[in-house]
Specification:
Layout (H helix, E strand, L loop, with lengths): L1 H23 L1 H22 L14 H22 L1 H8 L1 H6 L5 H24 L11 H28 L3 H21 L8 H8 L2 H13 L5 H4 L6 H25 L6
Helix pairs in contact: 1-6, 2-3, 3-6, 3-7, 3-8, 3-10, 6-7, 6-12, 7-10, 7-12, 8-9, 8-10, 10-12
């Protein structure tokens, strides 16, 4: 009974702590939001005149094509910067104190994940305000749908970052995994280039990459008349993309909860 009474307040407290902590560290805000925007502008302008997706029936600038991928990059960066706090909390002793509290492990995981997801959602929505700059026009209905998709994608990426950070003993190890695993997942998601122009074996890799469906779901909100007409090829449908994104989020939540229940987060 005591566990039930403390679980929800514990989750809300951890959620609030993540938000306050992030807002007080301006360098994290710049790193998570500024870097992807710089990539979007520089790469978009650099490839703007030479880019044309294979199979596209419209003249699409790279700034426009790269916009959904940049949005997912912002969500990924925010998840990375937020979940790395798990390693810092362990080092400072805060994580151990939380784990021995009466609160259930699932509430600890949910609080941390919701905090990081909220931060990613806010930054993602703010970035969407730049859509008209790239030539993308959004209706009110698609803005609402996009807000929901951003939350779902951010939740799944945060859960993935949580599981990796929970197993790490140092921030150096976390960054190594990020460079080896997380960034390639984003690069092979259709964010940088359409799958239609890649070798067959690489298309299969992109097809089993859950981040590919996150990018496709975002693209469907930006290009409601048809993603294929803009990006070329045959991207996953909206229903399939949403289903994969939801299942990915649930899987990472369950995986994070299982890991949190087995040990104290990388401690030996």
């Amino acid at each position: 009974m005591a566990e039930r009474r403390t679980s929800i307040p514990a989750a809300l407290t951890l959620w609030r702590r993540e938000v306050v902590r992030f807002l007080r560290q301006r360098s994290r805000i710049v790193g998570a939001f500024g870097s992807p925007v710089v990539f979007w502008v520089l790469i978009g302008l650099g490839l703007g005149r030479s880019f044309r997706p294979e199979g596209s029936i419209e003249a699409v600038s790279y700034l426009e094509f790269f916009f959904p991928g940049t949005l997912v990059m912002i969500l990924l960066f925010t998840a990375i910067f937020s979940t790395i706090s798990i390693i810092e909390d362990r080092r400072e002793g805060f994580l151990q104190a939380v784990l021995v509290s009466p609160a259930a492990r699932w509430s600890i995981v949910l609080g941390k994940m919701l905090g990081a997801t909220t931060l990613a959602w806010i930054q993602g929505v703010l970035f969407c305000l730049l859509a008209p700059v790239s030539g993308i026009e959004l209706t009110f209905v698609h803005v609402i749908g996009l807000a929901v998709i951003i939350f779902l994608v951010a939740f799944g990426l945060t859960g993935l970052g949580f599981m990796i950070a929970w197993l790490m003993e140092s921030t150096q190890g976390f960054h190594a995994i990020m460079n080896l695993f997380l960034l390639p997942m984003w690069m092979l998601s259709g964010a940088l280039f359409p799958a239609s122009g890649a070798p067959v074996w690489l298309q299969w890799v992109m097809a089993i990459n859950p981040v590919s469906y996150a990018v496709a779901a975002v693209q469907w909100m930006f290009y409601p008349e048809g993603v294929a007409a803009v990006t070329g090829g045959s991207p996953p449908g909206l229903v399939l993309s949403l289903l994969v994104v939801i299942l990915f989020g649930l899987a990472t939540l369950i995986g994070s909860t299982v890991l949190a229940g087995r040990n104290t987060g990388g401690a030996r």
